[in-house]
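Researcher: Sequence recovery benchmark, item below. Answer with residues only.
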């Protein structure tokens, strides 16, 4: 009897475990789609997305990709030459009949009915057909090379990303080092200027006072500041400017669009940003905008100690 009860309990536990596993499987989020299996890549494989396949990085740092791009450029140049010749040949074809008739009339008028001129029409039409076929062939060759370009990037994507990220971090660190050097060099300039004043004026009583606003950009001179930052009436503490530049370095090191970030992570833009796109004019949108504006004003006052002028 006991063994039967134990068997029943084990069976019940197995059923509950299976139900929990099924529940967790249903609740689990699917992994982000592989871009290599997406419709865009399929379009490229069929040669229907050549415009997308031609998109190039701002810095092409990979020799293999450079060689592929050089092949595409050569195809473009050959096709451009064929297109220019085709246009010229078509223009000549348009006037070929008139030229033939005129030459024929001149021969008849000169009393030479047996010595007829040769028409260019056949030769020109044959050349037009050959050039049209050549231009179409260049399109096919280019599509094949672009498909090769897409395949190279997809297959090498991890290595390309690692290569860029490595140098990106190096450049980011270098920018921060340069800002540190600049900040220290600015302090040295101020110290040297004051030392020069000491050398010229010692033991004058004027040396008992330090220069005002040395910690502000351009000594808080509004006229100089407005020349470069029109509309900004508040003085800029040098330390805050350097902090802003350091924040800008971090921004530049990750400067991509929201759409690009969402595509890279396999998410929607709304999921990435935490907000849905909204129509202008709704009351809740205006309320959200006012709240965000108030938050920005509060941050500005906390940072600078004054109310921003535009508000």
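Model:
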């Amino acid at each position: 009897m006991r063994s039967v009860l134990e068997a029943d309990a084990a069976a019940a536990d197995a059923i509950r475990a299976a139900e929990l596993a099924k529940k967790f499987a249903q609740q689990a989020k699917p992994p982000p789609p592989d871009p290599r299996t997406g419709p865009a890549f399929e379009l490229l494989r069929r040669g229907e997305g050549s415009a997308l396949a031609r998109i190039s990085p701002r810095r092409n740092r990979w020799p293999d990709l450079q060689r592929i791009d050089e092949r595409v450029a050569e195809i473009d140049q050959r096709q451009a030459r064929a297109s220019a010749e085709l246009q010229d040949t078509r223009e000549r074809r348009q006037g070929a009949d008139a030229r033939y008739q005129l030459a024929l009339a001149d021969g008849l008028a000169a009393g030479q009915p047996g010595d007829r001129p040769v028409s260019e029409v056949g030769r020109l039409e044959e050349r037009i057909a050959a050039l049209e076929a050549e231009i179409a062939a260049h399109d096919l060759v280019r599509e094949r090379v672009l498909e090769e370009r897409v395949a190279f990037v997809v297959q090498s994507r991890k290595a390309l990303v690692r290569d860029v990220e490595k140098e990106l971090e190096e450049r980011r660190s270098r920018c921060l080092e340069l800002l540190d050097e600049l900040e220290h060099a600015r302090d040295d300039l101020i110290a040297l200027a004051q030392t020069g004043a000491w050398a010229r004026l010692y033991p004058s009583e004027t040396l008992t006072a330090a220069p005002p606003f040395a910690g502000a950009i351009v000594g808080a001179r509004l006229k100089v500041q407005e020349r470069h930052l029109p509309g900004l009436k508040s003085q800029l503490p040098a330390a805050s400017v350097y902090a802003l530049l350091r924040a800008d370095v971090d921004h530049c090191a990750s400067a991509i669009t929201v759409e690009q970030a969402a595509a890279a992570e396999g998410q929607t833009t709304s999921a990435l940003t935490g907000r849905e796109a909204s129509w202008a004019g709704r009351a809740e949108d205006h309320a959200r905008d006012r709240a965000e504006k108030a938050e920005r004003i509060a941050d500005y006052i906390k940072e600078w100690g004054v109310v921003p002028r535009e508000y």
